[in-house]
Design goal:
Elements (H helix, E strand, L loop, with lengths): L1 H35 L2 E13 L2 E8 L6 E6 L2 E11 L1 H5 L5 E10 L3 H6 L4 E3 L8 H6 L8 E12 L4 E8 L2 E8 L20 H9 L5
Antiparallel strand pairs: 1-2, 1-8, 2-3, 4-5, 4-7, 5-6, 8-9
Length: 213
């Protein structure tokens, strides 16, 4: 009698495991698709004319608590960022692409001007700090969670009267142009408190940075 039960329960258990694994693979596939198409705003820009092909760029990024101002030459702005892309199995574990905004500059639409006219670039992440993505990218291989470390840039014409929102996705940067509201200032909804004390990792990074003198 016991042997008969085992003969009946064994295939049922195997079928249950097969269905569970199939359901897990299906959910994982949908979860991966959602992660790979996820977007989040990382910067917002406005522009005011300050002369022929010269604009004052007002940009907020990071916690969006403060606007910074830079003078750019050209017809378009260019924003550069560095990305760390994880392997698909790391995405399944919940790892999103890491990024770091690096610099902002101007760009001319005319190639001759691009080669001859003055341009300005500004470092948006000037302080040296422990570069964890660069360290992880030094250890490639099948078991490494790192797929690739690369740069991504986006550019668009600088037009007053519009707000430019730059988004990060798993594959890089993209930008959307929106009509500017009547009220000045940042339009992104800030969901975190500004001027809060630095967290443990921020304090550790500051302590590890090289000190001059």
């Amino acid at each position: 009698m016991v042997g008969m039960r085992r003969l009946i329960l064994f295939p049922l258990t195997g079928l249950g495991l097969t269905l569970a694994v199939s359901a897990l693979l299906l959910v994982s596939n949908l979860y991966t698709y959602e992660r790979l198409t996820d977007e989040a705003p990382i910067a917002e820009l406005r522009f005011l004319p300050r002369g022929p092909q010269r604009y004052e760029a007002r940009i907020a990024w990071g916690d969006f608590c403060e606007e910074h101002r830079f003078l750019l030459d050209g017809d378009a702005f260019r924003l550069d960022a560095r990305f760390l892309k994880w392997r698909p199995w790391a995405n399944l574990l919940g790892f999103d692409a890491l990024y770091r905004i690096e610099r902002l500059g101007g760009r001319y639409n005319n190639v001759a001007q691009e080669n001859q006219a003055p341009r300005r670039f500004f470092a948006l992440n000037p302080e040296p700090q422990p570069d964890l993505p660069a360290v992880l990218a030094r250890f490639p291989g099948v078991l490494s969670p790192v797929d690739t470390l690369y740069g991504s840039s986006v550019y668009a014409d600088m037009q007053p009267g519009y707000v430019y929102r730059v988004y990060r996705a798993q594959s890089g940067l993209l930008v959307r142009k929106l009509p500017a509201p009547d009220t000045p200032g940042i339009t992104i909804d800030i969901r975190r408190a500004c001027s809060k004390p630095a967290g443990f990792w921020q304090r550790l990074g500051a302590w590890l940075r090289p000190r001059s003198g």
